[in-house]
Amino acid sequence: MEQQQIDLFVHHIGELITMAGEAGAHTGSRMADVPVVKGGAVAIRDGVIVAAGPEADVRAQIAGLPVAQELDARGRLVTPGLVDPHTHLVHGGSREHELAMKLQGATYLEILAQGGGILSTVRATRSATEDELYAKAKRSLDTLLLQGVTTCEAKSGYGLTLEDELKQLQVTKRLNEAHPVELVSTFMGAHMVPEEYKGRSADYVKLVIHEMLPEVKRLGLAEFCDVFCEHGVFSPEESEEILAAAKALGFGVKIHADEIEPLGGAELAGKLGCISAEHLLAATDAGFEAMRDAGVIAVCLPATSFNLRLKQHARARRMIELGLAVALSTDYNPGSSPTESIQLVMTLGCLNLGLTPEEVLTAVTVNAAHAIGRGDRVGSLVPGKQADLVIFDAANLAYVPYHFGINHVDTVVKGGKIVVRDGRLAY
User: Where do the H-state alpha helices sit in 278-410?
Assistant: First the structure.
């Protein structure tokens, strides 16, 4: 080993879960294969993992090297930094006034038809300045970091004009440059047909394809393109047209698929080779099989179905039986999932989706990383990857989703730097 110092040495780890294993997302039964190292340690240099494993082995690997800083995990659980692969981070306003409507039985689509839902947030986002959106999104990003999230996807989609979509994406860019949490930007101009295009969805699709997508690409403001394929929003045909145009421009593609009705969004994800398909509550087995065969990752959003009081949840167990890779996400947004708590999502993944704690951890680390094209850099604690890790105030993995409603995070390390200490921001 080169005679260089170790910048950070994390030791006295009670249980270390590295998520080491075969390359790629973990599919099917592999999701439950989560080896635990008792008495572990992690050595970090230049923001990268040098060694991770049993403490005696790691100490042997770094023997003779000076250590700049030591971090005593005090016998607690250490995992890779958590990854949130689906958020609508940047937006204006809030929609708590819709709670009463939901309690009276109004559905998501009914609220939308009355001018609420996404359209309400569009009005608030358009009226907000870039700095106002930045300040609001930063507060949420701080909360995500305190929850253990070190990498996060952020979608646009509340502007629905070129100017306002660019405003959202510019906020994401600024936050990615200034905040410890690494952001992956997704353009979602096809989140909804705006009010001024009501009854003219074909014209709006043309605007997205011919004006928005090329300008977002020219400015380098997004890596992925997403579409809300749903009844009353964008049809499968319109969704395919938009995503095909995005692929031609070099975007990676994602799709909000079969959230409320089985429109064939999952099948379309397979056909187009999307990196991920999101929601999937109403997706069929045929859709799952199409996704599996194309290597599409299923991103399940249990906080959304919980908040919408839906009786049906994503069939995550069936996805695993069919050999899919499943990821979990908060779907943080101002309406259907107004929460930044990835740990609540982990609990709901167990209680409502039937996943084991091991499958849940896989879903919020390595699989979530692959769902946003970061699997080669984050999601596991192996030599050569970014040094992103979480120390939980817990003795074992099962305790985190079991003891719900609180934040178990004590310390977060991002890129080798301590950014949360004693449960408080430290950057």
Answer: 285-294, 302-307, 316-321, 342-351, 357-363, 366-371, 399-402
